[in-house]
Write a structure and sequence with these properties.
The protein is an all-alpha fold. The protein has 16 helices and no strands. It has 2 domains: 132 residues, Tetratricopeptide repeat domain (Serine Threonine Protein Phosphatase 5, Tetratricopeptide repeat), CATH 1.25.40; 87 residues, Tetratricopeptide repeat domain (Serine Threonine Protein Phosphatase 5, Tetratricopeptide repeat).
């Protein structure tokens, strides 16, 4: 698992980069007829990249209802992206705060994540927790996951693994890959929950299916060693290749070892092993045990006829 503080920073920054969901960005100013829902002109314009219209329509909504959380969130997003207005993250956060105070789920998560790490604002863990719990109360998966990470960091006290596992499990049910991975690690280690390798492998697999490379690596190691399921070296090698292609340095390094040895499930291929070793090194993973593979021979130049 990433170190706690590093995880919190990565998550806080990511919270500000994702575009709003349709559910969060739309909220008709007046109750629509059941058979003919009112079109969401603001969000529709945002999707068409007609940002001037999106801003104008959102402001119309606010004129009718100053606590229209979806309109407030959308205006915040426009300022965050610099879409139709000057990019200004501090202004965006102010809109997100207003949206959160009006009951906005996504805005509560974004603002809570930002205030946790002091992104364009003074850090305030108590306020961060309050906003994140507001979003979590509405089953916001990323907010639940971030609260789980906070339980591990736990203000510098020993990690509260049980509380973290509860948050991670709730988020994992909504297919949050980060939470699925974190829950699997706790299940594998038996921290905060009963040790359960089978369940850990299942959660790693679900996160891997979403392209979460660290989970793919963990699953590959379990498959290779026959932990949490049937031993399957060939499947393990395929999983490592999948994660290696996604740029995961650990997978590239492990795959290089398998290819260098010609281990079960993979045919020996020293040239390919060198390639993955070098890619892992480029990604910051230096493994001197692979030095004896040497360097890739220079390509031969074709002789002129």
């Amino acid at each position: 698992m990433r170190t706690f503080l590093a995880s919190l920073l990565v998550l806080a920054v990511a919270a500000l980069q994702a575009p709003p969901s349709r559910a969060e960005a739309k909220a008709p100013a007046a109750a629509p007829a059941p058979s003919a829902p009112a079109p969401d002109l603001a969000y529709g314009a945002y999707q068409r990249q007609d940002y001037a219209t999106a801003l104008a329509e959102a402001k119309k909504r606010l004129a009718a209802n100053p606590k229209d959380a979806a309109a407030l969130t959308l205006i915040g997003q426009l300022h965050l992206e610099g879409a139709g207005v000057k990019a200004d993250r501090k202004t965006a956060l102010d809109w997100f705060r207003r949206a959160a105070d009006a009951g906005g789920n996504e805005a509560a998560y974004r603002y809570g994540a930002a205030v946790l790490q002091g992104i364009e604002i003074t850090p305030d863990r108590a306020a961060a927790r309050r906003y994140l719990e507001q979003a979590a109360a509405q089953d916001h998966p990323a907010a639940l996951h971030l609260l789980g990470e906070m339980a591990l960091e736990n203000e510098g006290a020993p990690p509260d693994f049980a509380k973290a596992a509860d948050y991670f499990r709730r988020a994992a049910q909504f297919e949050n890959a980060d939470a699925q991975y974190a829950l699997a690690l706790l299940l594998k280690a038996g921290k905060g929950v009963a040790k359960d390798d089978t369940a850990a492998a299942d959660w790693f697999a679900r996160a891997s299916e979403q392209g979460f490379a660290p989970a793919t690596v963990e699953l590959a190691i379990m498959r290779f060693n026959g932990v949490g399921g049937r031993r399957d070296p060939a499947a393990a090698a395929a999983l490592l290749r999948k994660a290696a292609l996604e740029g995961n340095a650990v997978a590239q390094n492990r795959l290089a070892h398998l290819l260098a040895l010609g281990a079960e499930g993979v045919e020996k291929n020293v040239s390919e092993a060198r390639k993955w070793r070098d890619q892992a090194r480029a990604g910051g993973l230096l493994d001197h045990s692979l030095d004896d593979l040497g360097a890739e021979p220079p390509a031969r130049k074709a002789k002129a006829p």
